[in-house]
Structure formats: structure tokens, C-alpha cells
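Title: [Solved] DUF302 domain-containing protein 3D structure

Original question kept below for reference.
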Amino acid sequence: MRYDRTVHLDTDFATAVSRVREALAEQGFGILTEIDVTATLKAKLDHDMEDYVILGACNPPLAHRALETDRAIGLLLPCNVVVRRDGDRTAVQALDPNTMVALTELDALRPVAEEATRRLDAALASLTAADAHN
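Solution (posted by the thread starter after getting help):
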């Protein structure tokens, strides 16, 4: 089972992160956290790796609906959006919201997952459309 929704951009890392923030905001997702994995691994382990950041994105109405269905669903909310260098391109990855339904088998989560998928797909599509015009 695929658990990710991924697009690749032909843009530099900093520009990609900025564009991802904007695309998510246009779809009602706020960025609550940001983890600079590259800097953390360098500081804690003296390990060098490619640019890699995890954005903690949240759409409060969708999160609320999911949590009302299952309080433990916070473990599976599609909040993490990864932006990382992938060779000479930048990958943008989000957890497929349908994973919530597949793993829990709770049909009540299906409408939430479908809306979250529409919003995430729209954000990812706007990134690739903008990339094609540059």
C-alpha cells in the first residue's frame, strides 16, 4: 500500500519550502511546527545529509472532525509534510489521508480523509503547475 502523495519540483530547496507553505495555506493548512532534520542531525550526531525539513501542517476543522470520530487518530493525522532534496530536484511528500481509513477501518473517517486528500492534492498540484510555468 502506498502511504505517500509525492511531487517533485525543479526548484531550489528554500524556494520549494516557501512555495509549500503558501500552497498549504491556500488549502486551509497552517504550519504549526517545523523540524529542520538536516540541522538537527548535524548538531546532535555530526551527520551530514541533504536538505530535509518536516512541516507540521494542520487544518483545524478536518483535525477536529477526525478527532471527534476517534481520539487516537492523532497518531495518523496527515500533518507531516516533508520537503527534501532528491538528487537535483526537491521532493514534497505528504501522508496519504486515506491511510487513516485503511489502518483504522473506520468508515466514519472516510469523508474527512476524502476532503483532506482533495485539499492536499490541490496544494501539490498547484506546486507542480507553478513549477511548469517557471
